[in-house]
Amino acid sequence: MSFYNKVVIITGAGSGIGAATAIAFAKQSAKITIIDINEQDLNKTAEVCKTNNKDVLKIVADLTRDEDIKRIVDDTVAKYGKLDILINCAGIFTIASIESNNLMKIYDRILAVNLRSVVALTNYAVNALIDAKGCVVNICSVAAKLITKSNLPYSISKAGLMHFTKCTATELADKGVRVNSISPGPVKTNIYQYSGLSEKEINVLKDISVDCTPLGAVIEPEEIAEVVLFLSSEKAKSITGSDYLIDGGMLLKGLVSLR
After folding, report:
1. Which of 28, 38, 79, 87 has the fewest CB atoms within 10 Å, measured from its CB?
2. Are 8 and 87 in contact (CB under 8 A)?
3. Among all residues, which ones are annotated catalytic?
4. What phi and psi, each to the nearest 5 degrees, are found at residue 9?
5. Is the pTM of this model over 0.85?
6. In this structure, is residue 178 part of a structural domain?
7. How much of the chain is helix, strand and coil, in % rounded to 5?
C-alpha cells in the first residue's frame, strides 16, 4: 500500500496504537498530522516518523477543547491543502462502576475524550473529507460489545463510538466518504499508566488481559495499525460502516471482571 500525497490526521499519536499508526503511514509516504496532549510522547513519535518521511506536522492539543479541534483541521489544510484520512485513536481509560462515588467525574472525562472529541473532530473535518472523498477510521474497543464489570464509563464511550461510526457511515456514503471502526482487545499500550490506577491495580489488569484471551497473548499496536492502513486504502473502497474485531478471541470468553 502506498499513501503518497495522501493527507492523514492521527489523534493519540504519542503512544500505543496512535504512534504505531503514524509511523506506518509515514513509511507509506503519507503527509501526516500527529496529535497528542503529551508533548514529550509526541516528539518521540515525530522523530521516528521523520526518519521515513519529512511531511510531519506535530500539534499538541487537548481534544476536549473545541478551539484545539478547529486548530487541528485548519492547520492541516493550511499546510497540505486538503485532508484525505482521519484516524481517531485518542482514548483514556480507568475503572469505575455504578457504585463508584466519583462515577460522574470519571464518566464526564472519559466521554469527553473517547466520544465527544471524535464527534467534534469529524464534524469539523467533514467538509474537507467530502471534498477529498476520503475516509475515517475510529479506534473502538471490544468493550463496546463485551459486558465488563467495573468498566462502565469506558464501555459506554466505546459503544457510543461504534454507533457513531455506523450512523456517520450511513450519512456520508452518498458523498463518497467511508467510515469504519476497529475494536481491539488487550493491546500493548500505556493506557493503564495514565488511568490513575495504582501499580498493583495495573499489574492485575495486565494479568487479566492475558487470561481473558483464548490466544493467551496481548496484541501488538502494529497489528492494529496494519488494519487501519488497510481500511484507509483503495483495497477497502467497498467497506463502510464495518467494525473489525481484533481481540485475540476475547469476545469468545464472554463476561470479564476487572476487579
Report:
1. 79
2. yes
3. 154
4. -100, 130
5. yes
6. yes
7. 50, 15, 35
